Amino acid sequence: QTIPTHGAHDWKWFSMDGTNYLAVANHQTSSGGGSYDINSVIYQWTGTTFSALQSIPTLAALDWAYFSIGSSHYLAVANRQTGTTYNINSVIYQWNGCHF
Question: CA–CA separation, 12 vs 75, rounded Å?
Fold first, then answer.
């Protein structure tokens, strides 16, 4: 299986409640001056392939971290820059049973 990426910097595999997921941290739309405002994607294992589950807006994403606290699941993305500043927020998403 091939999965389209855009300057990908990280893949994170994680499992929740017996289901497997992959998150890709897309960094830039194209090399040499592309936009850093790009969606990163969460994929869900269907039993035969990984299928896109959710696109998440990111800014030059560098890394994903998955963790759980009790029965709650979280996915954090490290955003790097907008193209004009490195002073941006990274985001922690909570799983709602269907999406982050």
Answer: 10
All residues at 6 or more sequence positions from 58 whose CB lies less than 8 Å from its CB, including other chains: 25, 26, 38, 39, 40, 77, 79
Q: Report the length, in residues, of the chain.
A: 100
CA distance 68 to 52: 22
pTM over 0.90: yes
In the chain, DSSP assigns E strands to 10-16, 19-25, 37-45, 50-59, 63-69, 72-78, 91-94
> What residues are paired with 11 via a beta bridge?
24
Distance CA 77, CA 66 (A): 9
Give average pLDDT by consecutive 10-residue segment, the chain, 100 residues: 94 96 94 86 98 97 97 97 94 97
